[in-house]
Amino acid sequence: MSNDTIIDVKSVSKEFGGLRAVSDCSLSVKRGSITGLIGPNGAGKTTLFNLVAGALVPDSGEIIFGGEDIAGLRPHALFAKGILRTFQIAHEFSHMTALENLMVVPSGQPGENLATNWFRPGAVAGIEHDVRIKALDVIEFLKLGHVRDELAGNLSGGQKKLLELGRTMMVDASLVLLDEVAAGVNRTLLKDLAANIVRMNKELGYTFFVIEHDMDLIGELCDPVIVMAEGAVIAEGTMDEIRANPAIVEAYFGTPVEVG
Ligand SMILES: Nc1ncnc2c1ncn2[C@@H]1O[C@H](COP(=O)(O)OP(=O)(O)OP(=O)(O)O)[C@@H](O)[C@H]1O
Ligand SMILES: [Mg+2]
After folding, report:
1. Span from the CA of 179 to the centroid of ligand 2 (angstroms)
2. How far apart are CA 139 and CA 146, in angstroms?
3. What is the pLDDT of residues 63-107, one digit of tens each?
4. Which protein residues touch ligand 1 with a CB less than 6 Å away?
């Protein structure tokens, strides 16, 4: 694995009751890239993300991150290492404001620890102050200042997506996995979302691994793009290269028109 590889998936397989969702799959993501992952429904993309983020344990294979095989580590352990996937704002957070939603992201700071909380309240207050300042920075970065004190449940679908992205900025993420984050987001907010992903990549050094069905968005955002089908990688290249390969397009996406 070269130094500029952030994650190296090596011959990973995962079966669900005889169905090989991910089948001897190997791929790597370059540090500092926005890498796309596309493929037909049921190709195994989400399963692969779940394996990388620790929600599932592979049957076989290795997932190398920072020189270590992280396959099978639990999500909180991977979160602490900076591997994050976004989740929809959970129901129980919808009655908290946008700002508060950022402030409750577990940070691995002593404030989370009950014992420290109990015995050293002064230390926690100091940390909370820092967390609030960080959350305000994130709100500003995402241009969500006008809805800062709005309940998360009242935000629009696209604003919620921005907030989900913002939650990854509250910790020192190095690899962020986005699974169809643009689904259901209108064109204008989609542009904001894409612009923020690019800014987080360029200005803050985040690496993104992005599953998307919107080929225009993938083409705009991602280089390279990895194509999965039936649990394994069938191609990798720029979106233009993939679009220009009629065999891939026809075999896995129906007609070239759908991808172009
Ligand atoms: N928990 C599960 N139990 C059983 N089968 C599953 C489970 N999760 C996924 N599968 C199956 O594994 C295969 C791959 O599913 P996966 O969700 O990874 O596909 P995907 O590429 O993300 O598809 P989509 O583009 O539709 O989201 C599918 O056949 C799916 O039905
Ligand atoms: Mg999926």
Report:
1. 7
2. 9
3. 999 999 999 999 889 988 999 988 766 666 889 999 999 998 876
4. 16, 19, 21, 39, 41-47
